[in-house]
Design a protein that fits this description.
By secondary structure, this protein is α/β, with parallel strands linked by helices. It folds into six domains: 110 residues, Tetratricopeptide repeat domain (Serine Threonine Protein Phosphatase 5, Tetratricopeptide repeat, Alpha Horseshoe), CATH 1.25.40; 106 residues, Alpha Horseshoe (Serine Threonine Protein Phosphatase 5, Tetratricopeptide repeat), CATH 1.25.40; 92 residues, Tetratricopeptide repeat domain (Serine Threonine Protein Phosphatase 5, Tetratricopeptide repeat), CATH 1.25.40.10; 153 residues, Serine Threonine Protein Phosphatase 5, Tetratricopeptide repeat, CATH 1.25.40; 47 residues; 191 residues, 3-Layer(aba) Sandwich (Rossmann fold), CATH 3.40.50.1460. Helix content is 62%, strand content 9%. The protein contains 39 helices and 16 strands. The termini are far apart.
Length: 867
């Protein structure tokens, strides 16, 4: 390029429009032996590039050189501009005092339009330091000058910054107005990096207003824009971590923060960004229950923020550190004082996190028995229950519930819990993805537990049932929202299936698969991301349990809901027009016994494991004592429905002696059983039989069933591909899928059935307009579920229930393929006779050979729902 003044000055806006090209041109200018003024610009451009996208030490060398060259050129305006850029870099390097001094000199040297730009950049630094009032003052003084000069780029930057400061102060409406005005200006420019930053900022605004799907979508869009420019995205990572934590995805947030910190360290990047990422990692680790990591990351963040003279950020990091220490080692008077001091400082800063600190101080004080002190802090936290984003209002209602409990008011506890869970219900239904809905319930776990505790102590069994249902299996109350014919999502699902099939084939042939597995993981991330963008479209919070209607619909049946309060199981026996409560044992003991049973069933699934049968049966008897207690003697002669908590979803209920000979079904909640009971079968009661590849028996039951049903749609061989299978399953009356099943504990919605062209995953099932009325999954582990949120379950079975399926038969353990065939044939014999799935499964178990292998196979299967 030429060395003319205008062409060289064009490099400065270019660094935020096309950073790579600006860097290359600046290096070219320096190779031409330019005069001091032009060399100053080129060094400034390289300094900006290194400051934001590279090594901060190199950035400082370039910027100091640019400052010295500007002074040699005797250009006060040029020197002022460089001093502002240098000030930003110094602050990001943690040299706050030197950075602010550079700004003072820049304001003094510049005038008019240049001084306004210097003030804007100082406002940005004030925001980085958490000094929001000073930031707003500098923007207030800069904006009129920038507008008068017709400087759309810097005006848009100033508006975006002011909006970001408003968000930090909780003024979402003001932020929205500024973001909108800035976006109109960005549309008139070619500043691609600035445009990406505007999209990122809108994502933050969406999050602050409580719209998590929009926030995730906008942050993903910003990341795509940055990727095209080849620029790192550390601030984006900080913001995404915050949104991921709010969405209940704390492990993902911790992974992202740690990866960004490692990259920043390798680059020698900004110390300010490292401190912010450490704070994000600390918060994510605390939410994920990793207190040691949370304490370590938070302590590092506190130290860095203190060195950088950033008290707003330092106080937020101290809050996370106090929370982590309280979780790790209980409470102390010192922690109460620290939390109270953090609350005061946060309130003085105008931070929306202040109520959380007050709640923490009150909670720790309650644990120490300091009721009066606790009430003072909780009263402050409770003020947030009537305004602000959902998380702040929930914080306020938790504080109010704790105050009521300390005051001995069970009615006050229940009212506060009801109001808080109503807030979360409204928030949950803005989320379209079933995974996010499920994980969002974690914030309501404490409210639900407080209400259950109050109901147990000061209410009858019916009230305890209502509160046990209030926050259980809520994700099943409405089907997940689906983006209409999203071509990008469909493309990702197809590509995922193809890659997974190729990886499976490579494993069978002994070929290396790392590259295929990396691509598979990438596609998994994209599929999850796209589903998370979906907004909820179900009005209200879903059905509330009508106990009277439940008792009426039970008829001769009994429903047993196992409620867990303070680690103890309480058996709520529903039937004969009433709800009775019986005492069970410790939940931890039941979980341990269930694990022993599962291990025994795995051994019994293979020849030679017969010696384990007495041990498995003994564990079943112990489970019955812990889980049913005296209620086992009051079940009556009719069918039984079991509603276990999430921690017990893998119990093989048919193994318990009191349930072994019964018509038995399982449901995630009483409400979901009632909805299944009242679900009408489709008019087109067609039967679909699917046989996937690679089964040890070749899916031997399918040909026999095809002969029995006559008009059944049979999909096998190459015909059993996912698109064809989904088309046939949609709206079917009965579907039988004989296919290898895999359960993904790390990502339950990628649990799958193996079809001819690859895995049929839960995300595929969620695209059905209506899943089959009855569905039988005859392979291993198809009933395995992941417990998330408060008491939610994610997996194949729970994906089907809200989509129109009223009954499922599936297994919760590995099973012997050969033993499954006669069990399935006997099951269908019962269905052909007009029996329900639960009745047919009971009769099928009884018809099997009396040996350990066949018995274990029968116990591994359960009927879910009510069809």
């Amino acid at each position: 390029m030429t060395a003319g003044s205008d062409s060289v000055l064009e490099l400065l806006p270019m660094v935020f429009a096309d950073p790579g090209e600006a860097r290359a041109r600046a290096e070219h200018v320096l190779h031409t032996g330019p005069p001091p003024l032009h060399a100053s610009v080129a060094h400034q451009v390289l300094g900006i590039w290194q400051r934001d996208f590279g090594d901060l030490k190199i950035a400082l060398r370039h910027l100091r050189r640019a400052r010295d060259l500007a002074a040699r050129a005797a250009s006060a305006e040029r020197e002022a501009d460089v001093l502002a850029t240098l000030g930003v870099a110094l602050v990001h390097a943690g040299r706050t005092r030197q950075g602010l001094a550079s700004f003072e000199r820049g304001v003094a040297r510049g005038s008019g339009h240049t001084r306004a730009r210097v003030r804007y950049r100082r406002a940005y630094v004030w925001w980085v330091l958490g000094r929001h009032r000073e930031a707003l003052e500098d923007v207030r003084r800069a904006l009129p000058v920038l507008r008068q000069a017709g400087d759309d780029i810097w005006t848009a930057r100033a508006l975006t910054l002011r909006a970001t400061v408003h968000l930090a102060l909780g003024a979402v409406d003001r932020a929205d107005a500024d973001f909108t005005a800035a976006e109109r200006l960005w549309d008139t420019t070619g500043q691609e990096h600035d445009k990406a930053d505007a999209v990122e900022s809108r994502g933050l605004a969406a999050f602050r207003s409580g719209d998590i799907p929009a926030a995730l979508r906008l942050l993903d869009e910003a990341e795509e824009r940055y990727a095209k420019l080849g620029t790192p995205t550390f601030m984006l990572s900080v913001r995404r971590c915050e949104v991921l934590m709010a969405a209940g995805l704390a492990p993902e947030a911790l992974t992202e923060a740690d990866a960004a910190i490692a990259l920043l360290d390798r680059m020698g990047g900004q110390a300010t960004r490292k401190a912010e990422l450490l704070l994000a990692a600390a918060g994510a680790a605390r939410s994920a229950g990793d207190t040691d990591t949370a304490v370590a990351r938070a302590a590092d963040a506190v130290r860095l923020f203190a060195v950088q003279r950033r008290p707003w950020w330092e106080t937020h990091a101290r809050l996370v550190l106090i929370e982590a220490r309280a979780a790790a080692g209980g409470g102390s008077a010192r922690l109460v004082a620290d939390a109270a001091a953090a609350a005061e400082r946060l309130a003085a800063f105008g931070s929306p996190a202040a109520p959380e600190a007050s709640l923490l101080a009150g909670r720790i004080a309650l644990g120490l028995g300091r009721t009066a002190q606790a009430d003072r802090h909780l009263a402050v936290a409770a003020r947030s229950r009537y305004g602000g984003p959902p998380t702040a209002r929930v914080t306020g209602w938790v504080a109010q519930a704790l105050r009521a409990r300390a005051a001995g008011s069970p009615r006050g506890v229940r009212e506060a819990c009801r109001r808080g869970l109503d807030v979360l219900d409204d928030h949950r239904m803005t989320l379209g993805a079933s995974e996010l809905r499920a994980r969002a319930t974690a914030r309501g776990a404490e409210l639900a537990a407080l209400a259950q505790e109050a109901s147990l102590a000061h209410g009858g069994p019916r009230r305890l049932l209502e509160w046990s249902e209030r926050w259980r299996a809520t994700v099943l109350s409405a089907p997940p929202a689906r983006p209409p014919a999203d071509p990008a999502l469909l493309g990702c699902l197809t590509a995922y299936r193809e890659i997974a099939a190729r990886a499976e084939e490579a494993r069978r042939e002994g070929r290396p698969v790392p590259a295929l597995e990396r691509e598979q993981r990438r596609l998994e991330r994209e599929i999850r991301s796209r589903t998370h963008h979906t907004h909820g479209d179900a009005p209200g919070a879903g059905d509330r349990l009508d106990v009277a209607r439940l008792l009426d619909r039970l008829g001769r049946a009994r429903l047993i809901e196992l409620a867990v309060v303070d680690g103890r199981v309480h058996v709520l026996l529903c039937g004969q027009g009433r709800v009775r409560r019986f005492a069970g044992g410790a939940l931890a003991e039941a979980v341990a016994e269930a694990e022993h049973v599962q291990a025994g069933l795995r051994r019994l699934a293979h020849p030679g494991g017969e010696a384990r049968l007495p041990l498995v049966e003994a564990a079943g008897r112990r489970l019955e004592e812990v889980l049913l207690g005296d209620a086992a003697a009051h079940l009556g002669p009719g069918p039984v429905v079991i509603v276990p908590p999430g921690a017990l979803h893998r119990v093989p209920w048919a193994l318990l002696p009191a349930l072994r000979e019964r018509v038995l079904s399982v449901s995630p909640s009483a409400g979901s059983w009632l909805r299944a009971r009242e679900t009408e079968p489709p008019r087109d009661g067609r039967t679909v039989l699917v046989r996937g590849p690679g089964l040890a028996t070749g899916g031997a039951e399918v040909p026999e069933l095809a002969g029995r049903y006559g008009t059944a749609r049979v999909l096998e061989g190459r015909a059993a591909q996912v698109p064809s299978v989904l088309a046939e399953l949609d709206g079917a009356g009965l579907a039988h899928l004989a296919a290898h099943g895999t359960f993904r504990a790390d990502s339950p919605l990628f649990s799958a059935l193996r079809m001819a062209d690859g895995p049929l995953i839960v995300h595929d099932f969620e695209r059905l307009a209506r899943s089959p009325y009855r569905i039988i999954l005859s392979s291993c582990d198809t009933a395995r579920l992941a417990s998330v949120g408060a008491d939610e379950l994610l997996g194949l079975v729970t994906a089907l229930l809200p989509l129109g399926t009223a009954g499922v038969v599936a297994s919760s353990a590995p099973v012997n393929d050969a033993a499954v065939v006669p069990l399935m044939l006997a099951l269908h014999k019962g269905l052909d006779a007009g029996h329900s799935l639960a009745e047919s499964l009971r009769d099928a178990r009884a018809a099997q050979p009396d040996d350990p292998l066949h018995q274990a196979t029968g116990w591994a299967f359960a009927a879910f729902g009510a069809a």
